[in-house]
Queue: 4 jobs
Job 1
Amino acid sequence: MDVHWPVFLSLVLVSYISPGPDTVVILRSSARGLRPGLSAAAAGALCGL
């Protein structure tokens, strides 16, 4: 099996750099203030556990 390392590494890099839906939710909540932003981050951490 032949691996195309430049293509593979570029896809991995893009997947690490791009924000996910959790980041978008926290950013939107943070735009409303500190308390909603921290609440969204805490709720996301608790749901992840």
Job 2
Amino acid sequence: MKNLKNNKWFRAAIPALLLHCSIGTVYCWSIFSQEIADYIGHTKGATEWAFSFAIFFLGMSAAFLGNVVEKDIHKSSLIATICFAGGMAGTGFFIWYGGQNPGSIVALLGIYLCYGLIMGIGLGTGYLSPVKTLMLWFSDRKGLATGLAVAGFGAAKAIASPIMQSMLANLGEGGIFKMFYILAAAYFVLMFLGHLLLKKPEGWHEPQGKDAKPSIMQVLKTRPISNYVGIWLMFFLNITCGLALISQEKMIIKCLGLAGAVGIISTVSAIFNAGGRLGFSAWADKMKDRNTVYKMIFIISIALTALVVVTGGISNGNGNILAIVLVLALIFMVNAGYGGGFSNVPTLLSDHYGMGSISAIHGITLSAWGFAGLVGNQMAALIVKHFGEEVVIDGNTVNPTGYQYVLYATLALYVISLLVSLFLVKPSKAGEAVHDH
């Protein structure tokens, strides 16, 4: 038992997975958003904002509560548990209320409040809480450790999706709100267990008092400020492009005449998302400069996007084997690069700015995720709405030209990302302890 108390898997990896596999289910929104819209008597477009708000408040709460995580991971992981499970239960209540009062604005605003703001705070604090702890326990393989936890966040959708679909099919009338109550209870137990187990290594003591630790701005100024701006921009642009494509993924697959395989392809892309989180970050442990991983992600994304643009892969994909292969390769690799972008941020930041204030700096950087959550999906939806025209393929109404135009936007943004990675983000101070103690 004594060995378990100081075991890095028991005190860092397992609790990180318990927390991240729970909060990562925020990405399951697309599975039940239509059911929620139908049940409460609102449009799907109106309910979609709940997910955008959840990602926005994830980024904002991480940015503003990074210092709380820095000082006390037990307080922050408890806040995460209560807010995430409480927000989920509250969402269930307002779905029930909307069912009793169809078209009620109170129900819609209640869902925004619970799924967006309250769960968003749980997401931000829950996402940050285990990351520094993992990097402290696994100091020799930081990328592998953070990749493992962040892969849990990515894999959560693949694990939870079939469970949620089964619940919706078997819970009968009002299954949609009952599901939220059941999930709230289940995730509270899992996250509370993670909260109890999470612990920093015995030898690590956070500096105490106002003067013990430099301000975040002082730490960021140890490198040219353009360096941090570059990291933030790379992160923001990679997520924006990823969300723009992922939000249209199902419709793009239908353009290829593969409507019957949407479920399987979505599961494979979720596996690539999780695999990218673990694979790219573990690979980066072997590199002198972790920024090399971002350059690789952007080059792969640019090459595949350009191939689909040049061949008109989405427009000409129905029945064209080469186009189908190229479009699926693009979907899978963008998912992998999207995931890899997440898992490499905390380790890249620690290589540049040391471990002393990493939770707070990582938290501020996650604000990029919050803004990208508002920009990515909405940008893609706007392009699809204003370009091309709807056609019917195998009984599905789709807009191949519109989705093709989304790729023009993401290609331009990926090129900007690569330029930022090459010219703004300097080689890191890896191995040099900056403000470590």
Job 3
Amino acid sequence: MTLKETLRTISIALFIPLGSTLAVADSIIVQSTTSTKNSGLYDHILPIVKEDTGITVNVVAVGTGQAIKNAQRCDGDVLLVHAKSSEEKFVAQGFGIKRSDLMYNDFVIVGPNNDPARIQGSKDVSKSLSAIVSNRALFVSRGDDSGTHKAELRLWQASGIDPASASGSWYRETGSGMGATLNTAVGMGAYAMTDRATWIKFGNKGDFKIHVEGDTRLFNQYGVILVNPKNCPNVKSSAGQQFIDWLLSDRGQSIIGSYQVNGKQLFFPNAN
């Protein structure tokens, strides 16, 4: 083998692993709540993220509680969920670098058109939940420690109601995601609480409609956090932070705000 051929062989051997490493570095895992996935938001923004940054974002969509646990186990680079107190605890315990507000929408209570609890048009979530209890109307809960489930439990508690005592009677827990829970509610003719984005995108509404909305306690904030590389040495912190910076940038916020389904905006950017 000539000297020129030898050098060429060495350069190829060095180049291929280097290229491969770069490709891996440009791919990150986002532990995410299901609502952002089910709403179609990622299908809208991730191709643009790839075009702008070169980063391939792989989303693991589970309930917020499970997403946080996955991130604590270092099974991801970025956490994007909607349970602010749990997110702040995640950062305080050293699992995340910094939490930033990203966007918001709201929760709504949906139910059958015949409205057995007579709560149609209510803007008072506590009175509505009390009416559901008084009428022993069926209510289906995710029961899965998701952000939606956490918010629902806070609302029951604020209303002075312990739904766990009625588990299996008028209060049913699916232990499933939002889509499956809505399907169960529709099948049973039961009320359910859902984020508005998932409801707008949901295709099996039947005669169901929104009964309760507009209470400030139904506000639904999303946050984004880089997993702490000091706790998880394999975190791709550079690419992860680049993705977060894009989400929080004017361009990212504009693209999030532009996402619509059936002419309705699903998320409202409010990066801090």
Job 4
Amino acid sequence: MKIIDWYIIKKFLGTFFYAITLLIVIVIVFDVSENVDSFIKNKAPFMAIVVDYYINFIPYFINLFIYLFTFISVIFFTSKLAGDTEIIAILSSGVSFKRFLLPYLIASVFLAIISFYLGNFLIPKTNEVRRVFKNTYMEKLTKDNETNIHIQIQPNTFVYANRFNSDESIGFKFSMEQLDGQKLVYKLMADNIKWDTVKNKWNIKNYYIRTIDSLGQQHISMGDEKDTTINLKTTDLYKIKERFEEMNYYQLNAFITREKQKGSIVYKKYEIEKHKRMAGPVAIIILTFIGVALSSRKVRGGIGLHLGIGIALTFSYIMFMQFSTVFATYGNLSPILAAWIPNIIYMIIGVFLIQKAPK
């Protein structure tokens, strides 16, 4: 059986890497044709286009479509095995269907490990370079918030800025309030607040500070300029599109912890991303078994019928993932459930299909 195991593993991985390579080439060609105007208009250097953008684009693209092409690869070569009656011969020789699934499990676990590493460690690194290029030569990823910025920086502490200039790291008409329950105990107001990169502190100008003690007495101080430490980052005051793309597993965890400590609800989108990075590799294994169960039976429709069913199932999986993400982001669905519900549903489908597969 070892010879057959290696044969299936080689066919599985060979078909996958061949298919994904062809698609990468096609996508890059279309992407170049779509963005060539931006490259020329913004005078992007040729080597920067090749190295900074497209080479760093490849890992992102592989991980984006790894579920779909794992499924297609399994269905494609397994349907061919079934069509040539090779599966019948293997099972007739006394090999159980569960034993027949072992090489598929090995290959899918290998791809799942690759996906986990890409999503949690390699892609965040490559995205740093790719997004710098994109922000410089294609589209602006950093965007100043509109006027009247209200955010919570820690429990019972809120800040306000009329607007914030990210290029100069300066906010205008700034105020900060601290509450004890419903009672105001501290208020800072300033004409502007600027981040000092040398001192790693905020510099406030024309400030007014009002403190209310436990007896209800007010203490007021004011001045022209002052350096102060506030639990506030410049990135809290402006938007960075898809900021989590640059965060590895540990950075994502640290960001989520920090946002929870602040009492902010921004963490939900990042927590969904974290669990999706964990659930994605598992989906590869689940979809592999569904693919084997679907395509191991010899049918009159052949590969075409199997591919049609397989692609429909894969896109329905992606659709379920998108729906659950929306419900978790804007509703009350738990981020963990949002990431794992599609896997749970398709695992049940996979178990059912394997039980019905020819033995």
